[in-house]
Amino acid sequence: MVRTVELFIPLTGMVDQVEELRKLESELEYQRGFLAGVRKKLSNESFVAHAPEKVVALERKKEADSLSKISSLENAIKVLKNN
To answer: Distance of CA 73 to CAs 17, 48, 54, Å?
Structure first.
């Protein structure tokens, strides 16, 4: 993600924390699987050697974006669990 901004709006009592936590954990699981797939491609020497540089660069960007999303999701889960 490029130039991301995180905003915190107090919604105490307005959000079902259990449901929100479930959604975040589900998204985190998806992102971890997605990251594993991207890393599998990037670890394939044949793919990296033969794919056009644009394709390899796109996969590297996907990896970086996924890492950023995972970090944000982990932080959000941590905050919800501490409340």
So the answer is: 14, 29, 28
What b-and-e string marks burial along 4-30, b requiring 16 or more CB atoms within 10 Å of the CB? Answer: eeeeeeeeeeeeeeeeeeeebeebbee
Residue-wise pLDDT for 13-26, tens only, equals 777 888 999 999 99
CA distance 72 to 66: 10
Nearest to residue 67, comparing CAs of 28, 41, 40? Answer: 28
> Which structure tokens are listed for 71?
């970090």
**Average pLDDT score over residue span 78-83:** 86
Handedness of CA 74, 76, 80, 83 (dihedral sign): positive
